[in-house]
């Protein structure tokens, strides 16, 4: 898949729910892992504060992949 100029913005809401406004749907860590595997740029933003938490979410994906392959 071709890279877009801008990253896909994922918003994290309370209860750690991840929402992709472009799709109008909630997504899972597995969905984000597939995006990374497909070389898509993404940024995860805490909806309440606007804080960029991409690094933290990517670490969660790496830990989950270590447990589940």
The count of strands amounts to: 4
Order of helices and strands: EEEHEH
Shape: globular
What is the gyration radius calculated from CA atoms?
12 Å
Number of helices: 2
Main sheet strand line-up = 3-2-1-4
Instruction: Quote the distance from N terminus to C terminus.
Output: 23 Å
Give the total of domains.
Answer: 1
Mean pLDDT, to the nearest integer, reads 90
Low-confidence stretches: none
Q: What fraction, in percent, of the residue positions are helical?
A: 25-40%
What structural category arises from helix and sheet content?
Answer: alpha+beta
Main sheet specs:
4 strands, mixed
Q: Approximately what portion of the residues adopt beta-strand conformation?
A: 25-35%
Question: What key phrases describe this protein's structure?
Answer:
alpha+beta, 35% helix, 69 residues
